[in-house]
Amino acid sequence: MSTTPEPIPLPVTAVTCLEDRAHVERTTVLDLRSGTQRLRLGPVSALAADRTLHAELTADHPATVLDVRIVRSWTPRGPRPTDDDSALRHRVTALEEERLALGQQRDRLRARLDALGRLAADLLREIGEGAGFGETERARWTRELDRVDAERDSHGERLRTVEARLTALVAELSEAQRALDLSETELVELVGHIELTVRSEAAGPAGLRLSHLTPCALWRPAYRAVLDGDSLRLDTDAVVWQRTGEDWSDVRLTLSTARSARAAEPPRLGEDRLTLEDRSPAERRTVHVELREEEITDLGPAPVPGLPGVDDGGEVRVLHSPAAVSVPADGRAHRVPISSFTAPAGSEYTCSPELSPLVHQVVRFDNLSGHALLAGPVDLVRGSGFSGRGTLGFTAPGAPADLAFGSRDDHRVLRHAEETRDTAGITQRTVLTRTVRLHLSRFSALAEHDDRVVVLRERIPVSEVSAVEVRLREDACSPVPDAIDADGVVRWNVPLAPGGRRTVTLVYEVTASTKVTGL
């Protein structure tokens, strides 16, 4: 067996991005010799999962893959930059070398000044001792003192110049280092290569396809909705993050909601015993009821706190990028276009005063993209430009979807509720009467002259026991509700002129028998 001295390039050609990892596929053409040989391919990401490594020969060539493995190596960066490094890195290296040289020069000057100071002290001591013994060498003493003072002044000036340059150099080096940290990232310490052992019956070219899983990659759906009159254009994008250590250049990108890390074993079934027992006389005489709040939800998984996952409606969804894309390994968000469609849209101004006093514009349209719309954020664009960000829920292909385009500042809704309790004379039944008044106002600009229909929604309780009855008093309601559904949601279509005001009244009764408690 022989190992190729130079690694054979193994570029990334296709990527399937999952919810929290990526399935990377690489292809190349090998020039095989007859016999068994070991090939070195790469480099590849050192984060590749060894257990998921799979290689197969695709061309019609009599060859067999005997072994495939990933080998990681670490090559430290040299002390000096190479020709492939940027000009900024060369500048940082030059500044560091100059700072080192100036630091050494400063130390030498300080040592020289210290020696000159000791020399001056020795000379003054010699002059004192000589004068005490009656020696008079005025010319020599003067010449020596002038020479020492001149050298001390010269070296002191040079030291001040070096220290000033060193201070400016440290500031310049700090700015250059900060710019280098922002513009460039350090290379990954570990570099991976693929060692492939192949046995070939004859010499010739053979295609190789190699795949593996890699962490540090994920994607989430995102949308852009443009409302233009009675039509809506919805652009579907995929936001991709990856920091796998290698760039994805011109790859076929597939987005999948498959969760490969989640176990597929069914849960264990525990024993659940059901028993029947007779009610006591006190329990037969009373019926305990309570008011319960329930949220009306559509089909789909329940939301969970924290980082949201990909809501696929319980079924694996696969989306494809229509063109080859490039995603650098910088850990930043990159938007990849997936699809776009334009559909007729109808607008409705709606308000649920019990939840919010704001009047919202809701746009309804059909999903004509040909694939399911996964839950994700939506950038809302109207005639005036970007107007905010909303949320789109999971929508099946061809199903209707609702998209809120924000609230209207020229509408105001006030809600007042009253409640009275009474007991009927003969039956002794408890009657709970609730009155809700909604005051709706419209403050419009001078250019608006058309009426606007505002849909108001209120709710009434829904009884689940025969001992409690809920009745809507249509004779006391003003105006009479346009519709009421099985969930107890009452709806009015209220036309409102510019500057107009309307008051809507809702009255309903809850009647309970004498055996009912807890109401």
From TrEMBL:
<keyword id="KW-0175">Coiled coil</keyword>
<dbReference type="Pfam" id="PF13598">
    <property type="entry name" value="DUF4139"/>
</dbReference>
<feature type="coiled-coil region">
    <location>
        <begin position="159"/>
        <end position="186"/>
    </location>
</feature>
<protein>
    <recommendedName>
        <fullName>Mucoidy inhibitor MuiA family protein</fullName>
    </recommendedName>
</protein>
<dbReference type="Pfam" id="PF13600">
    <property type="entry name" value="DUF4140"/>
</dbReference>
<dbReference type="InterPro" id="IPR011935">
    <property type="entry name" value="CHP02231"/>
</dbReference>
<dbReference type="InterPro" id="IPR037291">
    <property type="entry name" value="DUF4139"/>
</dbReference>
<feature type="coiled-coil region">
    <location>
        <begin position="92"/>
        <end position="126"/>
    </location>
</feature>
<feature type="domain" description="DUF4139">
    <location>
        <begin position="208"/>
        <end position="512"/>
    </location>
</feature>
<dbReference type="InterPro" id="IPR025554">
    <property type="entry name" value="DUF4140"/>
</dbReference>
<feature type="domain" description="DUF4140">
    <location>
        <begin position="15"/>
        <end position="116"/>
    </location>
</feature>
